[in-house]
Amino acid sequence: MWLGAGAAVPRGVTDIGGEHKGLLGRDDMVAAIDACALKARLSQPGELALIDVREHGQFGEGHLFFAVSLPYSRFELGLPTLVPNPAVDLVLCDGDDGVAERAARRAAALGYRRVRALQGGVAAWRSAGYTLYAGVNVPSKAFGELIEQTHATPHITAEALQAMRAADANCVILDGRPMVEYRKMSIPGGICCPNGELALRVADLVPDPRATIIVNCAGRTRSIIGAQTLIDLGIPNPVYALENGTQGWSLAGLQLERNAERQHRREVGADIGFLHARAQALAAEHGVPFVAAAEANRWCSDGARTTYLIDVRTAEEVAERAVDGFMHAPGGQLIQATDQWIGVRGARVLLADDEEVRAPVVAAWLRQLGHEACVLAGGLAAARRLRWPQPRWPAPPPLATISPAAAVTATRRGGLRIIDVRAGTRFRQGHIAEANWSIRPRLAVTPGDASTPIALVAEEPGIAALAGIELADLGCAEVCALDGDEAAWRAAGFHIVKSGDVPADADMIDFLFFTARRHEGDANAARQYLAWETGLVGQLDAQERAAFRIRSA
């Protein structure tokens, strides 16, 4: 059962370990853990989910190294996937503004039984003498820098690569990012081959063993990981990471290519047996276990452990033939942004593909990242012979809708308020003139407004539903969702306006300006970003560095 606003919260939220408790303003209590106790807990065995419930921009300005971002605006939508076991120890952190406690109530309503909030939020963490990290995907980014330091991964500057191209040298540029990023901007002549596909496709893309291979991304991490993947596989070609990726190319005054479509072929022409053996050897070097499907299936019923089932194939392959129970994460992106899929430290991570070439290589990287990664023996063919447990999580009840025409009439009569809960950047690009922008943790209703019906503008029904729960909790009597899109709103009589500075930058807690402007021609932003990446290793303390299991070169 979904427990919405005002519903009684189960008494499963208890004090774990004797830390401080705080009253939430109702009858329910949420356990609190202080910064020092949390720091110690991060070094202890056992599973732990550390979730930062602030919005994306707030998280990116400074967060705990091991924290996983799940904004409160979509908390209940993302929690079951990020933290699929409701029995796990779950710690929530915020900006000491009560949002973590609100999220704890929502988690308890979903059945999570061991929930705590970081006392004093991220400010208390800093006050205790611990580091807050800017940016996103920080563990993966720091890991990439450590790999380059440990293995002395060869790199090439943009100027040197341009000289090679001008001299018509025998070189191939492989872009380790997904196609959607590659299309936006790429190195001229580069071919899209996401890092997770390299082990399977490099022989087809670069059949000449004398050709020099350069791997690039937008910055540093995927360039380093992609190049080191090929080196670790033992291919005979000279391999280099493009220093600073497309940003370094632009900073060198060189032109990027836009809307390129070059990519690897779907079919594999190389000897799969050889590729399989090479990937198996690399996996063995890093202690990657291969687990029988029946055993992995039993893992999923183990309430004491968390097991992630991840299909690392391409999106096109998954769309054609998915396996129920497995979530999709392209292998290269899983290494680059592990915290987007894995929210529990110490969990088991089971990877699968069709040919057992990609999954073993990705698992080898994840084990070095500190995860208990393994590979499904027999691949997805084995997985398809079993039925996998299908956890069923309640969805938030959808809001009733109001048509654009009815909304126009009600608004003009003063009988309807419109609140736009889309991204702040989307609101700036175009919104209904009468609408105000807000976001779930900032929703507020004055006593005089509580009786006025509210129509929410959202691009996802689930986001509107969660905002509706919040508004009902604030005492709003009637909340609905506005139907249609901008064209329908305009046709019904609404005026659509743009606002370059509303919401103000300071209010756009859902947007991280720090990382966004580097791809908009802002050279200073690009330099700042690259300096941030290279500076991460120097910020790590002994505990954070010990989380990685990097083999010496």
Tally of extended strands? 23
> Structural class, from helix and strand content?
alpha/beta
Question: Which whole number gives the mean pLDDT?
Answer: 93
**Overall spatial form:** globular
Write the layout of secondary structure elements.
Elements: E1 21-23, E2 29-33, H1 35-41, E3 48-52, H2 56-61, E4 68-69, H3 75-82, E5 89-93, H4 99-110, E6 115-118, H5 121-127, H6 138-151, E7 155-156, H7 158-166, E8 171-175, H8 179-184, E9 191-192, H9 198-205, E10 212-216, H10 221-233, E11 239-242, H11 245-251, H12 272-285, E12 290-291, H13 293-299, E13 307-311, H14 315-320, E14 327-328, H15 331-336, E15 348-352, H16 358-368, E16 372-376, H17 379-383, E17 401-402, H18 404-412, E18 417-420, H19 424-429, E19 431-432, E20 436-437, E21 454-457, H20 461-473, E22 479-482, H21 486-492, E23 496-497, H22 513-516, H23 523-539, H24 542-546
Helix pairs in contact: 6-10, 6-23, 11-23, 12-16
Walkthrough of the structure:
The chain is of the alpha/beta class and 553 residues long. The chain contains 24 helices and 23 strands. A six-stranded mixed β-sheet has the order 1-2-6-5-3-4. Residues 1-27 have low confidence and may be disordered.
Summarize the structure in short.
This protein is an alpha/beta fold.
Keywords for this entry:
4 domains, six-stranded mixed sheet, Oxidized Rhodanese, domain 1, five-stranded parallel sheet, single chain, 553 residues, alpha/beta
